[in-house]
Hints:
- The complex is a heterodimer of chains A (about 350) and B (about 325).
- Chain A has about 350 residues and is of the alpha/beta class.
- Chain A has helices at about 1-5, 35-60, 70-80, 95-100, 105-110, 135-150, 170-180, 200-205, 210-215, 230-245, 275-280, 285-295, 300-325, 330-335, 340-355; strands at about 15, 85-90, 155-160, 185-190, 195, 200, 220-225, 250-255.
- Chain A has a six-stranded parallel beta sheet with strand order 1-7-8-4-3-2, sandwiched between helices.
- In chain B, the strands form three sheets. A seven-stranded mixed beta sheet of chain B has the order 3-2-4-5-7-6-12, sandwiched between helices. In chain B, strands 9-11-10-13-14 form a five-stranded mixed beta sheet, with helices on both faces.
- Chain B is globular and about 60 Å long.
- The mean pLDDT of chain B is about 95.
- Classes of the chains: A alpha/beta (about 350), B alpha/beta (about 325).
Amino acid sequence: MLIEKFDPLKGGLLQILDEEGRVKSEFEPELAEEDLKKIYSLMVLTRAADQKALKLQRQGRLGTYAPSLGHEACQVGTAFPIQKEDWVFPYFRDLGMYLTVGYPLADYFLYWMGNEAGMRTPDDLNIFPLAIPVASQIPHSVGAAMAADIQKKNIAVVCTFGDGATSEGDFHEALNFAGVFRTPNVFICYNNQWAISTPRSRQTAARTIAQKAVAYGFPGMAVDGNDVLAVYASSKEAFDRARAGQGPTLIEAVTYRMGHHTTSDDASKYRLEAEVKEWEKKDPLSRFRAYLKNKGLWDEDFEKAVQEKAAEAVEKAVAVAEGIPLPSPEDIFRHTYKEMTPQLNQQLDDLAGALKEGRK
Amino acid sequence: MISNMVQALNQALSQEMERDPRVVILGEDIGVDGGVFRVTEGLLQKFGSRRVMDTPLAESGIVGAAIGMAAFGLRPVAEIQFMGFIYPAFNQIISHVARLRNRTRGRFTVPMVIRTPYGAGVKALEHHSESTEALFCQIPGLTVVVPSTPYEAKGLLTAAIRSDDPVVYLEPSRLYRAEKQDIPDEPYEVPLREARIVKAGKDVTLVAWGAMVPVVLKASEIAEKTGVSSEILDLRTLSPLDTDTVIKSVKKTGRALIVHEAPKSCGLGAELAAQINENALLSLEAPVLRIAGQDITVPLPKAEDFYYVGPERVVKGIRQLMEF
Lengths: 360, 324
């Protein structure tokens, strides 16, 4: 068990690939070649979609956006062990998670374009809409895991959040519940060092975030969050533990927010360019690409095919999202309650009347 | 069965848990202890610790976990020990309970009930006497319910648990053991979002809810002796409001007196007065009047009576309306 070998109180950190993509650990996961290629493709797709979102934002076609650059290993590695029956509670910087579980990219774009229709999760996926209020989704994931327990379903429930979230009361309340009820939860903190302008050192005086699990009575471990194999291996173990009724796990994936907090933020105001440059060397994609190459699973043709496929999927998603009709006045009223109330009907009539007369 | 409000609520919980295996309850001290007011007495023994969960002392955790349970397919009933302690959960209520249906266009819903005792008049500790129902009435997506009798309490809680929308169910602690009533043994629903005409009358409409209903009843008896006939409305659901019943009554009587225990400014009385002005102005014989708590922090027990609305203040209001 990895969690036994990487004690967070002793500063343990799992890294399987070094920055050149060489295997430097005995814990290289056993993944089929097809799965390795799939993970790489998902990481490429995540980056392509992320970059497209930034472009769309600059062109005024998409609203304020929280970029995922640098988080591809965290997001895809965390999500890869998810099975159909599992439940997922992501936060607002988790594009790779959504793509890995099969969420339509068009819907993801649609949400950031400002249309709630993009948050209507497909019926066959158990993934919550991303949570904006920081850490508020963590208790939901614990409740779902408690419900799974009550209904005797052997599933895992995964919840992701950033380092800033670990300062919130909801983080504490949720992880405390998880420990007490021994829920099948997988908690993954993408510790990207920055919560807007607040550095990790201002979030906690604890040496690691992973060690917080110790106080809640369950295991925690830190991993290199730019090493997709390390993230996958720890995540897989946490999922297995959850499904086997062994309780929750907290994983701290140590990474870096390469972009601004959102498109409304300017990170140059509060952090040094040199720090960003340092982390560029640890890029999760190039590291994994080198690993695949070393294994004989990567060549230029493969790269070209993966990039082309990603670009195609992204363009198609944009076209679909932009082709979806604007919401109607009814759309903004009809999901407030199960049935429309007399007040809502009246207000909808008022709005419809005003629109008819060309007023707002 | 002769029951007080506590027993009536207990019956509703027990019967709904029997009827529907998805119903679970969670909160502080609700299991072994049966709740600090004994509303959940005996349920742990009957349904076991999987469905009756004593939780850590964490209100946001309780409500937040209940959201996950509800989305997963359960019907959780979360108890917050006192309304004064509900505020740590306010973010969960306003940001998720109330809006998950909307933000997922109906894919995920939150069929849950948040029960909590509230209100003054029981000589309680600090933070145990406030009435902040209006805070919840401003939140789209929530249904806010207050019972005023044991019969109403059982039927409304049953309906709340069966509702597909989230319900904030406020229990007037002053009424928990104030009255006993013969209520049906079998489960029954009292409809949500419908006000109750407690007593028909012709001269003035008195609008109240929760612990103010018996106060208003008493006042109307006194006023009756001077020949004033009051129509009494118990709102039962504070949001979404049953405006029609209020307007219909005011159009008939021409006078409206709203009585609430919460602070006057921006209280629900203000909304009711606005609705009456918008919809029944020409029927009014006098301006709409509010009798309410002062805009102060509820005093500790030694001075609580200065704050609490009693029948005399209501009678004075009725007289004022009749003499306008």
